[in-house]
Known about the structure:
This protein is an alpha+beta fold. It has four domains: 1-42, no CATH class; 55-81 and 185-273 and 368-432, Nucleotidyltransferase, domain 5; 86-177, no CATH class; 276-356, no CATH class. Helices cover 45% and strands 18% of the residues. The protein contains 14 helices and 13 strands. The strands form three sheets. Strands 1, 4, 5, 6, 7 and 8 form a six-stranded mixed sheet that branches. It has a five-stranded antiparallel sheet with strand order 9-10-11-12-13. It starts with 7 loop residues before the first helix and ends in a 9-residue tail after the last helix.
Amino acid sequence: xxxxxxxxxxxxxxxxxxxxxxxxxxxxxxPDHNTVARFISNYKIKIEDLFYQLINRLNExxxxxxxxxxxxxxKIEANANRYTFAWKKVINKFYEKLKIKANDFRxxxxxxxxxxxxxxxxxxxxxxxxxxxxxxxxxxxxxxxKTQLQRDYETVTSYIxxxxxxxxxxxxxxxxxxxxxxxxxxxxKEDYMKNGQLKPAYNLQIGVNSEYIVGLDLFPNPTDVRxxxxxxxxxxxxxxxxxNIVADAGYESxxxxxxxxxxxxxxxxKPQNYEKQKIRKFKQDISRVENMSFNEETDxxxxxxxxxxxxxxxxxxxxxxxxxxxxxxxxxxxxAGCPFAEKCKRTPHNxxxxxxxxxxxxxxxxxENITTGKGIIxxxxxxxxxxxxxxxLKQNMNFKCFKYREKSKAKVEVILFAVGYNLRKYxxxxxxxxxxxxxxx
Length: 441
């Protein structure tokens, strides 16, 4: 999709009027907008395969390599009405009411039919067997009377359908849109009313190498921290395993670090406190673990008042993805009469520290990576290449909102934009006689 031509009717018009499109057709009859729409709808998987075939071809031409991938995200508004939100708490409330109704129906059905079914699914199977055995035909419309068997069957199937609908709506999200159930309500940067308005959107993740988009995927997560691992899995499934992963601070977590190190990736992820730790306030904050001395032999921290914080126990916490985060808990032996208490702690109890050793070790290694000469160049190029790709997609190609609904169709739409972006990038490079962007030389 080139030059803001991003609708099927605009494509049809250009096929009939634009000489460049006519050259592509090679005297074949111009397809109408319905043909283009059916092609996009019927060949979603083939279009995605075509995109990655293009990436492999660019790799064969030495336009791209498997050295560095620059990852970033942007929130693209979904094709859904803005005020069609469905919140998880509200759906759970109706779900509980539905379970009460289904349970009451089960009790009444068992009493009336002298049965002992444990759930409505068993009742449904029983009714379906009766319908087949008795060869009962359902009746609908005015002037007819439904049998009790038909009434019971319609009731139990409606409960099951509603239960499946509730399960499919939210899953692990806190919200969804009624007109595009795959979209999640998020806060976008384009907040013209300055009131933090929530809009239905998708989190678009892209990976860029040598100025080409080499991978993309859509996620319902408003934040980036839980998108890195599944996104890299998508790239690996297409035989695109890059050596260096360059991303911003939004991707930093112990789970992501552990995955990268265990799978032979080199992370160049900017720590979330990278800029903050440079300021004077951070360095003079005596309550922070970074500003306390640690004794490895005794496994104790020493505070500003020269008092010991001893190890107590290990705290384990499971996040939404199922990863277990372990933190060592240290507690001061006695904070009574400490002149630094107001600056050091917020509670009347003894000072406690929660230290994630694995996370701090991973963060230290990543910070060492980004502060090397190579790391500085990679960080600089991340902002240039990824943000440049987003700028071309949004401004030059006018991709600011999805035209299709549902994740599968929306993904095909953005893939078509990525194919157009890569083709135009390749043509421009060849026209200018520019080699692949090997910025490390």
